[in-house]
Amino acid sequence: MWKYDAINEQSTISLHDCRITHIDEQNGNISFSFMDGFWIVETNAQNPFQKTLRTEDGAKLTLTNANCVMVVMEKKIIRWHDFWQKINGGEWQFECIHENYTAGQVKYDGWIWFKEKPCHRNSSLKLNYDDAIYQWNEIREDRP
Question: In this structure, which of 59, 93, 100, 133 has its CB flanked by the most CB atoms within 10 Å?
Fold first, then answer.
């Protein structure tokens, strides 16, 4: 299904300003789908354009052997099940602003976007995982 993939390339793929639009959990893995793709930076070996560009036609990040440690919105803890149900139901999207990867753990800080006012709230998502597998089909040269 995916043309390209990269494993543990957090330094050459960026989720900044990218929105999680679907979440899938299977066999201990958590996958995030990005309808508008994510960023492939100029130092990524699979980026022939030598500039940071967005992927086309969506993209996916799978965290292997993963579990959610915590979802927080405006200092209030949200149950993982409620979070992914709202994302998958189209009620919410999570926009990643900052990514912080440490040994076996990632924290995404950003916003949960809503369809009605208030439009968004400060939020964070923390997960444990073994590997990060990024997948996409094309890099759009016209999307710097």
Answer: 59
